[in-house]
Structure to design on (423 residues):
């Protein structure tokens, strides 16, 4: 068996029974990311064992993994970046107990808490993101799932939003869906539905006790059955093992979601995962690169937590991911939206739909184009609080955090406030 560390340094331990020959030259190995990219470009797929080996790529070989994954990204999406914009319609006060979530039952996180935005407020918030170049607006509400009255409420928002912005895609994220609700959302103009698997089935009981992994799979299935574009992804850094990360990525591949957001745990103070720092910037790059190689032609979206976990490597992540959220998240503040757009441009990419860039093949609105709109100048994000200590690492793919990271800056602008949004 070839040891991975040796593989990447050009030497190998060749074991044949008890006969071990150290320092023998190695032959090309199928975990070479370039060879795997060749296979994927030819229509093949990764095995779960290969996926695990790639996740365990050493730091000093990670750039090679990124380069290989970048070939797939560019094959399917060119140099475009899809910009998405979150509007939190209802924040906090959730009866569920997801350990990672600042909106959970009994949270001690001092987040904004508000009930449903009025339609005109929601559309005004969304319009800021659209003006900044967002091609998709993601309408999110906390809670177990919507009532039928909630679905009607969201329907009115979507109708109004589509009337003002007919070319924008709308994704709803309202929790677990009951029978018929996905169809009703679709009839109001919703294009996509987000419901993340979040982690591996085998890890799910560790992160939530009030609903099950199967509940989540069922809701994605309801969205698909209703003809909505499925969006489902991950939160990494929650103490999952490398094997569980592979399990989760394989499940997402099987789910065949059109878009796959990859969130990096933001360990809010006042939540059970407070102080959990399992990720390094290079580990985050590996996870994104492997997500790309598991789902070569899907929209891989860099989602919440990118600023604090990828840090200065954010632009490199665009080499494998083709999508991001602009500006702030549901309960925390992101990097300034103007900085997001500058980063995209500086790294040599273009915003999807801007400057005549081609539409995404994975997009349900692939044949629509949106003229670039001038972006609003925004305030810089609030200064982050002081660093918190790192928790013990959990596994090699998510190796020990190399430096203390800042705690999430709680969102105090945009939806639910009188302060202009970060867009
Ligand atoms: S993730 Fe959603 S369901 Fe879970 S606690 Fe947060 S808002 Fe509630």
């Amino acid at each position: 068996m070839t040891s991975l560390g040796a593989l990447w340094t050009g030497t190998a331990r060749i074991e044949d029974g008890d006969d071990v020959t150290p320092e023998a030259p190695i032959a090309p190995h199928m975990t070479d990311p370039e060879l795997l990219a060749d296979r994927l470009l030819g229509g093949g797929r990764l095995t779960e064992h290969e996926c695990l080996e790639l996740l365990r790529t050493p730091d000093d070989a990670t750039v090679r993994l990124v380069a290989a994954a970048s070939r797939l990204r560019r094959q399917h999406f060119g140099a475009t970046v899809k910009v998405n914009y979150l509007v939190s319609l209802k924040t906090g006060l959730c009866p569920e107990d997801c350990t990672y979530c600042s909106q959970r039952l009994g949270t001690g996180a001092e987040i904004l808490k508000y009930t449903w935005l009025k339609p005109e407020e929601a559309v005004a918030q969304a319009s800021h993101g659209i003006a900044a170049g967002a091609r998709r607006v993601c309408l999110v509400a906390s809670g177990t799932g919507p009532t039928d009255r909630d679905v009607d409420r969201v329907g009115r928002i979507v109708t109004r939003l589509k009337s003002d912005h007919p070319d924008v895609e709308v994704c709803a994220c309202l929790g677990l869906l009951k029978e018929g609700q996905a169809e009703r959302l679709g009839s109001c103009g919703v294009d996509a539905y987000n419901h993340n698997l979040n982690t591996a089935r085998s890890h799910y009981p560790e992160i939530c006790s009030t609903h099950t992994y199967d509940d989540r799979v069922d809701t994605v299935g309801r969205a698909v059955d209703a003809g909505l574009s499925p969006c489902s992804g991950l939160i990494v850094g929650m103490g999952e093992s490398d094997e569980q990360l592979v399990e989760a990525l394989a499940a997402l591949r099987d789910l065949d979601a059109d878009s796959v957001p990859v969130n990096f745990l933001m360990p809010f103070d006042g939540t059970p995962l407070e102080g959990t720092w399992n990720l390094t910037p290079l580990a985050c790059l590996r996870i994104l690169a492997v997500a790309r190689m598991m789902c070569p032609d899907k929209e891989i979206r860099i989602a919440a937590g990118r600023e604090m976990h990828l840090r200065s490597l954010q632009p490199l992540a665009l080499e494998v991911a083709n999508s991001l959220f602009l500006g702030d998240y549901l309960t925390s503040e992101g990097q300034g939206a103007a900085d997001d757009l500058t980063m995209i441009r500086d790294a040599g990419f273009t915003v999807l739909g801007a400057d005549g860039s081609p539409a995404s093949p994975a997009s349900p609105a692939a044949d629509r184009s949106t003229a670039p709109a001038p972006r609003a100048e925004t305030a810089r994000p609030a200064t982050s609080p002081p660093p918190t200590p790192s928790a013990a690492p959990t596994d090699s793919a998510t190796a020990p955090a190399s430096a203390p990271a800042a705690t999430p800056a709680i969102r105090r602008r945009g939806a639910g406030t009188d302060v202009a949004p970060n867009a």
Summary: The longest helix spans residues 148-164. The longest strand covers residues 80-90. The radius of gyration is 21 Å.
